[in-house]
Amino acid sequence: MTAGPFTPSGGLIAPMVAELRRHEPFARMAEADVARFVTAAEQTYHAPGETVTGPQDGPAPRLYYVRRGTVDARGGVAELAAGGVQHEPGDLFPAAAVAGERAATSTYEAVDDLFCLAVDAAFARDLATRSAPWADFLVRRVQRLLSLSRAALQAEQGALALAEQSLEAPLSRLPRKTPVAVPPGTPLVQALRLMQERRVGSVLVMDAEGQATGILTRHDVLERVALARPPDDTPIERVASAPVATLPLASSAQDAALAMSRLGIRHLPLTEDGRVVGIVSERDLFGLQRLSLKHVGSRIRAATDRGALVAAAADIRRFARHLLAQGLAARALTELLSHLNDLLTERLLQLTAQAHGLDLGRACWLAFGSEGRSEQTIATDQDNGLVLDDAVDDAERARWLALAREVNVALDECGYPLCKGGVMAGNPECCLPVRGWVDRFEHWMEAGAPDDLLKASIYFDLRPLAGARALADPLREAITRRARELPRFRKQMADNALRSGPALNWRGALDPTEDDDGAWIDLKLGGTAVFVDAARLFALAHGVAATGTRERLLAVAAPMRVPPDELEGWTGAFDVLQMMRLRQQVREDADAAAPNRVDVRRLGPIDRRLLKEALRVARTLQQRIGLDYAA
């Protein structure tokens, strides 16, 4: 049954507003807009088992806010959630139907005595024109909750940087610095005098169209001027570095930082419509930080022994904590971590190969699992292998195995634990010639048992990391080709992806494992693994070469005809869970033996809601796998 109109008196409005502002999105709304909601609302009561709303009502007539009790959503989209979705106090439903002016796909039923505030759908949409936080909530729930979680992390870690100083900020938001530039024929001495007068570390060589054709930096001056001693009237274009790496002005600061580290440079010209419009330096990006990406990368490249790399690995983790406190998104942070870990592994491999007298042109170090996907978190173990040239004989292979074991041990000393499953290059099964790897993959895919494929799944995320990278091409080609040809393989991959689901109960509420110490959810096994497994399956089924989870999901969206809002939910929910893993791993009391376990009793209301929303998306994603592949 539904009570009559609820029209609170002036004395009741303030307490009701205070109640609502304990929950999102009301906590971010202007008090006057929350008061409008309260004033427009009717209080409704629904007995246990009573239907509140559903498809039979046509375009959703009302939006409900749960004050007390719980409500189950069944049928439609909720039916894909293997038991439905449960809404608790503070939740609003059916938000998507109201925003889209369509009928709800699910039927909402009171579980117990249910008290709600209900507003007309037209009022809810009209309120979106007045209140940006309310509009944002209606269309971007998961993404907004992620943003709130990151903001809470900044406060928790004591980060003082403004949002526009984050590495996620577009370069266009940074103070625009006009580059010091000269024409190609400018005498060298004139260019050097200009650098000194302007007190800059670089001068661009630009043509008449405003395009950069070269750059002279202080490093170039030492090597090409002070040591080479060319005549003063030498045209600058003869000593400048070319071609010049540039970035579009629309790129992010994180893109610039990563490019500088990968290319070993300190300055990047910025372009708009092909013309240079500014320049950004490493100092611009990291002036407020004790560590910089370039600093850590340079320390790794300059390492001459294992001890130096152990120290550099500690810098990587410390740098990651700084960026996490700054509010860097999970996707950007895991990419940066993987990049630095790649640099460290490559340098270690170079030093070890030199010590063993081995030519890296005859082998390639492979990254599997999270490293292969460029999704490494702060707490990560090893998953790697070696692919050897087919011309390598047994005696040389034994030398490569010895090298691999030494590298595995050194990585363990650097803080990357040995793989408990033995997926390491020092294992003879993971140190094979090209033909041996191809045969191994084809056996798994054509005749392997489900358990074999479950153990082998991380191999399908392979990425060449160092050495003769072309040796990995036949492996990736074999995996892609056979995945398209073998329905049995895709069915087994789907079955494995459905073996364990997200940590939700049958009603859609969080379902932790409780003991005397807390109520625990493994954010990896009960969360991100669902997205990783799904993205891998979709990518292999559609011939997508990408290895990253997010990149795979984006790439398969078109051939799978995934609606934009559903795709946004997938990627947003994955980012949510990755961020929560990172936050858990930097806690002072983090459990090194279980770095991905979170005690849900210690989560604040935003993070608890965030976790539940992300796991609900994971559940619907699994249901799609069941419908498309496992039937």
Can you walk me through this structure?
With 631 residues, this protein is an alpha+beta fold. Helix content is 48%, strand content 15%. It is built from 24 helices and 21 strands. The strands form 6 sheets. A 4-stranded antiparallel beta sheet has the order 1-8-3-6. A 4-stranded antiparallel beta sheet has the order 2-7-4-5. Helix 1 packs across helix 2, helix 10 packs parallel to helix 12 and helix 21 packs across helix 22. The N terminus is likely disordered.
Descriptive tags:
631 residues; alpha+beta; 4-stranded antiparallel beta sheet; 15% strand; disordered N terminus
Let me know the average pLDDT: 85
**Strand count:** 21
Proportion in helices: 40-55%
Q: C-alpha Rg, in Å? A: 28 Å
Poorly predicted parts: 1-5, 77-83, 150-165
Global shape: globular
Distance between the termini: 41 Å
**Tally the helices: what do you get?**
24
* Percent of residues in beta strands: 5-15%
Helix and strand content put the structural class at: alpha+beta
Biggest sheet record: 4 strands, antiparallel
Write out the strand line-up for the largest beta sheet, numbering strands in chain order. 1-8-3-6
